[in-house]
């Protein structure tokens, strides 16, 4: 066996041999000798960004493929039923929402409701901020999780990021601590 080289120092290297499931990479076929690039959506923090960029770039020529990729990204980012998430895995939008609801003693589902009452509005902004801070989700993806639009999420993020309210800063720090502890990174 060869000497172990840290991936941060290695750069690009051949790790996988990929054959097309349709057999078109066989000798003499159209895709013989083609190069393929594999993304690890479970462990590589940059893979979803790369997949999102690809989905955006191929949208006009391959709209069905683009739509399918966006659905897959949403399942991963939003923590849908097909996402592979464990307690030691990434912080997801649903885990942030649940943590904020528990912290503020808010009925589950209220943060995604149309309610604009102060007891929901402030915690919703905290949740949106923590989603943006802890996940790879775009503003639009976070907005969908809260039934809000992109500008609402940007506004919430800026409000929390720029706050001078010491109690609010402490609340955000405590919820962040709890999220990290749930992943096994805290305490």
The overall strand count is: 0
> What percentage of the residues does DSSP assign to strands (E)?
under 5%
- Give a quick account of the main beta sheet: strands, pairing sense, barrel closure: none
Structural shape: elongated
Query: What is the CATH H-level superfamily of the largest domain?
Result: DnaA protein, C-terminal DNA-binding domain
Rg value: 20 Å
Unreliable stretches (pLDDT < 50, length at least 5) are: 80-88
Return the string of H and E elements: HHHHHHHH
Structural class: mainly alpha
Examine the coordinates and then state which fold CATH places here, giving the name of the CATH topology of the largest domain: Chromosomal Replication Initiator Protein Dnaa, Chain: A
How many domain regions? 2
Number of helices: 8
Reported CATH architecture of the largest domain: Orthogonal Bundle
Q: Please state the average pLDDT score.
A: 84
The separation of the N and C termini measures 38 Å
Features:
mainly alpha; Chromosomal Replication Initiator Protein Dnaa, Chain: A; 2 domains; 8 helices; 0% strand
What order do the helices and strands come in, and which of them pair?
Blueprint: H1 7-10, H2 47-57, H3 63-77, H4 93-104, H5 118-134, H6 139-145, H7 150-161, H8 166-182
Helix pairs in contact: 2-3, 4-5, 4-8, 5-7, 6-7
């Amino acid at each position: 066996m060869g000497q172990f080289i840290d991936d941060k120092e290695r750069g690009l290297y051949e790790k996988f041999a990929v054959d097309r499931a349709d057999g078109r990479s066989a000798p003499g076929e159209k895709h013989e000798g083609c190069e393929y690039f594999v993304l690890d959506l479970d462990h590589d923090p940059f893979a979803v960004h790369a997949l999102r960029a690809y989905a955006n770039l191929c949208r006009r020529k391959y709209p069905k493929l683009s739509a399918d990729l966006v659905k897959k990204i949403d399942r991963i980012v939003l923590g849908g039923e097909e996402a592979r998430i464990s307690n030691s895995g990434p912080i997801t939008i649903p885990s942030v929402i649940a943590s904020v609801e528990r912290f503020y003693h808010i009925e589950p589902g209220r943060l995604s409701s149309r309610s604009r009452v102060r007891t929901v509005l402030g915690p919703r902004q905290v949740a949106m901020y923590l989603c943006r801070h802890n996940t790879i989700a775009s503003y639009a993806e976070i907005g969908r999780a809260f039934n809000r639009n992109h500008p609402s999420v940007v506004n919430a993020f800026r409000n929390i990021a720029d706050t001078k309210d010491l109690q609010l800063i402490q609340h955000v720090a405590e919820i962040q601590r709890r999220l990290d502890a749930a992943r096994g990174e805290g305490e």
